[in-house]
Amino acid sequence: MKNILVLVHDDEGQEARLQVAFDLVRAVRGHLTCVDVVAIPVFVGDYLGAGGDALLLADEQARETANATALKQRLGHEDVPYDWIDSSGDPADCIRAAAKLADLIVVNRRLDGSWYPDMSEITSKLVARSGRPVMAVPGDARRLDVTGNVVIAWDGSDLAGSAMREALPLLGFAKSVTVLQVDDGSVKVQAAEAATYFARHDIVATVQIEDGRGQKVSDILRTVIAARNANYLVMGGFDHARWVESMFGGTTATMVDHSPVPVLLVH
User: 192 φ, ψ to 5°?
Assistant: First the structure.
């Protein structure tokens, strides 16, 4: 894991994305790709001739130009090698187009109080369609300690296995790794097998099994995150179609919206 891609956009979540991306690049001695997106609101579309919509677009372009100028000056003083991609349109589409050679994408899990861009929706699109791991960070994140504690959500599924494998390059830095199995009687591949897999990669993992009957998995996850003082969570993303997650409140969707720590998501 060497190529880290981060969304650049002038919103209240940008600092969190940057700090986490910087920490990741430094930890893996990698390279940062900044995708600077002029986000065109959906209602602009084909109506650029309308004065009000054109003014909104012009304002967005002006803000992003100023933001890019300031950030490039800042990057000159950061100890991270980087390149820069300018793009415009839907942020998720722009990031996906730029992520063909990325190992990890950094975005926000959501931005409270911000109507556009919808970071929760961007995150879900990237997890489902980019084919890349996505690190979704809270808006108030100011660092990512990859040498800290990690919780892995384990349900024995292919998605959980994929998330575990994609996280391996980072898990080697961790002080502790907890494989959390929320048991409702349906788990076919037990967490102990995941721990054995980690051991073969010289990673010592602790297995924790919680009774999931009568409890929300998301509530259990947040409780364990707090108890373990976890620095980030690893989990598979969107086992069902995104609209099903939205309608019925899937665990992934809930953690994307409400996790207190960054979430590494893999589809």
Answer: -60, -35
* Residue 12 backbone zone (phi > 0: left; psi -120 to 50: alpha; other: beta): alpha
Task: For 11-52, write each residue's pLDDT tens digit.
Answer: 999 999 999 999 999 999 999 999 999 987 655 445 445 555
Q: What is the pLDDT of residue 243?
A: 37
Domain limits, the chain: 3-137, 149-266
Q: Rounded to an integer, what distance in angstroms lies between the CA atom of residue 232 and that of residue 184?
A: 24
Model pTM score: 0.89
CB 82 within 8 A of CB 31: yes
Q: Considering the domain 3-137 in this protein, what is its CATH number?
A: 3.40.50.620
Distance CA 27, CA 232 (A): 15
DSSP SS3 for 89: strand
